[in-house]
Write a structure and sequence with these properties.
globular, 5 strands, 363 residues, mainly alpha, three-stranded antiparallel sheet, two-stranded antiparallel sheet
Length: 363
């Protein structure tokens, strides 16, 4: 019922963010109308999820009828052939499952216990662990001890790297000039502007996964058309995405691109510079205004490059390990670890903020 997961919602979010950058009216709606504008954009995103979910559900069901997901045995039997009415009912049911997950994720977010969509993805990854560990132990032989220990060491190093990159930040010093109001002296303090190395979090990974899934689904759906040209193009797309080298390069490029894209959407150096100047602040050695904006752009681009390359390497790490060792049983790799660790860190911060707000010392 929920075989699509939250993929259609993620795709709709990507489309809306792209439209926000392209259409000035949507950009004004997001920036000038504040919370009301964001609620309206979120509503449009939810509405867009429905047709996208229906399209992906229809493509997946047709793929199941042709046996495209599991070779000859998974869907070739007559029990998985659908009549027209059954196809409609199944498509609607799977689409409703996606809408249910979307509603559940937003409900989790509203309760203040972290990002609901990320938590749903997190639970999906964790739920696969028993099966993956069972397969690994079933396939274990004494001569593979070094490989298994190597995977464990790599996992620990990746987790440590994810924590360091996720928590890492560049602190930009900001000073505030002294101001006299009546008999009171205001300002004259120094603080800092924290710029995170990975401001996008797990969003680029999720975006890239959604984009990588979509062409394959459409291509598999178009394999059965009568037009030889379209069927040939679809077959080439399927073959390309089954090539590990092509898949890895595309995955890496998309993760890096979405890291820069999401950072540019969520962090506006010009807006930050104007807000600091309005409050009487300045960066020591940098003039307020355009030079401050350019300086912030320069710093953000440098630290985002580090975060983007790290995310890209983490994303393709499982492919590199499988190519080097040939071991495919341990399929949870860098991407899953990145999502799991990042979601855990973010959820812990949310819980800590709730505890602090209620003046509790702890659990």
């Amino acid at each position: 019922l929920v075989m699509l997961g939250v993929g259609p919602y993620i795709t709709a979010s990507i489309v809306m963010q792209l439209l926000t950058m392209i259409i000035p009216r949507l950009e004004e709606l997001q920036k000038e109308e504040g919370e009301a504008g964001r609620r309206k954009i979120n509503q449009w995103t939810r509405l867009m999820t429905v047709p996208l979910g229906a399209l992906q559900a229809f493509a997946f069901i047709n793929l199941l009828q042709r046996g495209g997901l599991g070779g000859a045995g998974a869907a070739a039997g007559p029990g998985l052939s659908f009549t027209s009415w059954e196809l409609i009912v199944t498509t609607v049911t799977v689409t409703v499952g996606t809408v249910f997950l979307m509603w559940l994720g937003e409900l989790i977010s509203e309760q203040g216990v972290g990002n609901g969509i990320s938590l749903i993805i997190f639970v999906g990854i964790i739920s696969r662990l028993p099966q993956i560990l069972g397969q690994a132990f079933a396939a274990w032989t004494p001569d593979q001890l070094v490989l298994y220990v190597s995977f464990l060491v790599v996992a620990i190093v990746v987790i440590a790297g994810v924590v360091i990159i996720t928590e890492g930040q560049r602190s930009i010093p900001v000073s505030y000039a002294k101001r006299v109001r009546g008999n009171r002296m205001l300002g004259g303090v120094s603080t800092h502007l924290p710029l995170r190395v990975n401001q996008a979090g797990v969003i680029p990974i999720i975006f890239a996964l959604s984009i990588m899934l979509f062409p394959g689904v459409i291509a598999n759906f178009l394999l059965g058309v009568n037009n030889e040209l379209i069927a040939g193009i679809a077959q080439r797309v399927v073959n390309a995405f089954q090539d590990q080298a092509f898949y890895g390069v595309m995955y890496f490029v998309l993760v890096v691109a979405f890291t820069y894209f999401y950072t540019s959407v969520t962090f506006d150096p010009k807006n930050i510079s104007e807000n600091v100047q309005k409050q009487g602040g300045f960066i020591p050695g940098i003039r307020p205004g355009r030079r401050t904006t350019n300086y912030l752009k320069y710093v953000v681009n440098r630290i985002t490059f580090t975060g983007a390359i790290f995310l890209g390497l983490i994303a393709v790490l499982p492919l590199l390990l499988q190519a080097a060792t040939g071991l495919t049983t341990l399929t949870i790799g860098g991407t899953a670890l990145l999502i799991v660790v990042s979601v855990v860190l973010e959820t812990l911060k949310q819980i800590e903020s709730q505890v602090t707000m209620r003046e509790y010392e702890g659990f």
